[in-house]
Amino acid sequence: MTRWGMVIDLDRCVGCNACTVACKIENGTPGDHYWARVYTEETGTFPDTKTTYVPALCNHCADAPCVTVCPTGASYKRDDGIVLVDQDKCIGCRACMLACPYSNRFYLNKGILETGYYGERTAFEDAKWAAFTEGTVTKCTFCAHRVDDGLEPACVVTCPTEARIFGDLEDPESKPSVLIRDRDGRQPLPEMGTNPSVFYVEGRSS
Amino acid sequence: MSEQIATRRLLIGGNQFLIGYQQQQEWAWLIATAFFLGKVGGGLFMISFFTDFKLGALVGILLVGVGKTTAHLLYLGRPERFLRAVWRWQTSWISRGILAMIAFCTLGALYVAPYVHVFIPQGLADACGIAAVVFAFVLMFYDGFVLRASKGVPLWDSYLMPVLMLFYATLGGIALTLALEVLNGDATRRTLEWLGIGLLAVNAALLVFFLVDSRLRHVAAELAVTLLTRDRLARIFVSAVVIGIGGTLVLAGISIGTHNRVVLPIAAVCDSIGQFFLFFAILRAGIHAPIRALPLRGIRPGVAT
User: Fold this and answer.
1) Does domain B22-288 have CATH number 3.40.50.12780?
2) Is the ipTM reported for this complex over the cut 0.95?
3) Which residues 138-177 of chain A have a CB within 8 Å of chain B?
4) For the whole model, what pTM was predicted?
5) Å from B138 to nearest chain A CA?
6) Burial of residue B95, with CB atoms counted within 10 A of its CB: 0-12 exposed, 13-18 middle, 19 or more buried
7) How many CB atoms lie within 10 A of CB A30?
8) Does position A32 have pLDDT exceeding 90, yes or no?
9) Residues of chain B contacting residue A135, judged by C-beta atoms under 8 Å apart
10) Of A190, A46, A42, which Cα lies nearest the Cα of B18?
């Protein structure tokens, strides 16, 4: 059984946000909804400070709490591990947004689709926004439409430093599996018990 | 101390592109209202059922059937799909709560039908009343499990949450029953008054235990407790405790000591205001942890974010 997942190499990310833009273009997310984004993390005390860029997206957790709390079944998990939201079933209760420990879900406020990003809606927005319903919750789909066609997610193919590596976590020889094994891949907030399909690697392998 | 608070304020500065703790923005007034009405409505019905006070039972049903339902519908993004929310009762406490609401209102209405001069056999009404009490009981604590299931908000993800909800609902039910009995010109039960005072003490202890436990459980929950007790939500939270527990206790004491029952409706108002704002503050204090752990101590203001 396939379990799609991703490894993010924090040593490679330069914080260019190309993934953020690629995702927005591929999925046409409305307003300031960014399914793929790059967090900036500043640590330390002047003059010993450090900036780390942390790319983030839905972790498509194996034990997704968003799926468990959803009262309608709108949030569901496919057999290949991708977690999706059925916009026709979602009632907009937003319980999933509070259940997600990673803040990776977005609510489409009423009226958000009435006007375009720059005022009047463009042809691009007309085409892309047909997939969205106001008053419901959306999230990263791991570009399921691309994956189903044998392609990688938009954020992965766009990344100029190959910081995002996509593949089957069940296959021990896939690129992500090898990276997780060799470089001690860590899941975000493992104490939440969600078993994310996104791993982070940092620091060169020994 | 002020530096510590300033540091924590800065830490709650996360957004879509900046790692940090983020205060939840989704559930506020309407959900707090729905939770409050469900709790006190269920509690009022249950206490009224056991004291055979039909007016109280009727008001309890109305609080849930009209008040709670309206608050939920106003909050939902797609209210026309409301009934879809019953499908996932196997895993979702929201589904279980909605099912309990529907069953409670239906069975409760049959229970009070003879009281409002709608004829149904008394035996059937009594049987429906017993079944309605079971669902009222579920309504009293289910939202605690809804919050408990919110893994993204460590303050709420506490085993104490359903217990808190249940005890506060019972207290709210007692306070409203006593108030309605006074307003209706009925005799009140001294036992209920003593039970209410006992519950006030238990609830105060539970609340302290919840706050202490939260501080120890998770950094985000610790931050939330700071928000509630010493920071931007402290005014609401502390006022809710003073009015809800302190005010109610004083008035209940006056009622028992002076046999002046007129203060009981005022005590019920104090308790209701206190309960509403207490849980509203707890909702607003919901804080998401960052995807990478940030240290809470030892960071100077201006550096953390």
Assistant:
1) no
2) no
3) none
4) 0.90
5) 17
6) buried
7) 22
8) no
9) 76-78
10) A42
